[in-house]
Design goal:
alpha+beta; globular
């Protein structure tokens, strides 16, 4: 049996891999042709950061940075009864009227949007560390984060420093 016949599968897989590699390379090159050198460097930096998310202290730092920049989101959490969705909104209090909380979803430097949330009567509200508080105690300009789960709602507010 010749060398070629014994290794035919290996050669076929190699040829297919090379063809796929050439195709992917041409597609990415075509897409990258219009991007600037700075944006390619920025994308590469993001890829390196994403690769680090998986391990060690630097990964934890990256996750904290990501969490600080998040203004809203949904998390699916495993519980003893199955999976539950927990939502959060973070921003600045605009106004409070009854059980309605109007807030601007934003970070310290940028605003995403303004939303009005209906907070259930049994929600736990913490104002500047106070464990027992009411929604009416919140004032305009306070930083706030609202966690909403299936059974509970938690509102945590604090007066901005400065």
């Amino acid at each position: 049996m010749s060398f070629l016949r014994r290794h035919l599968t290996l050669f076929a897989v190699s040829a297919c891999s090379i063809a796929v590699g050439i195709g992917v390379s041409s597609i990415t090159t075509a897409g990258a042709a219009s991007t600037s050198k700075a944006s390619r460097a920025s994308k590469a930096a993001h890829v390196r950061k994403a690769a680090r998310l998986g391990g060690g202290r630097s990964g934890i730092r990256e996750l904290r940075l990501l969490a600080r920049r998040a203004v809203e989101g949904d998390l699916v959490v495993s519980t003893p009864n199955g999976f539950e969705t927990v939502s959060f909104e973070r921003g600045v209090v605009g106004s409070v009227s009854g059980q309605q909380l109007t807030m601007s979803e934003q970070t310290k430097t940028a605003t995403y949007k303004t939303v009005t949330l209906t907070i259930p009567a049994g929600a736990l509200v913490r104002d500047n560390g106070s464990k027992v508080s009411s929604l009416a105690s919140l004032t305009q300009g306070q930083r706030v984060i609202v966690f909403t789960g299936v059974k509970r709602t938690l509102v945590v507010a604090r007066t901005a420093k400065g």
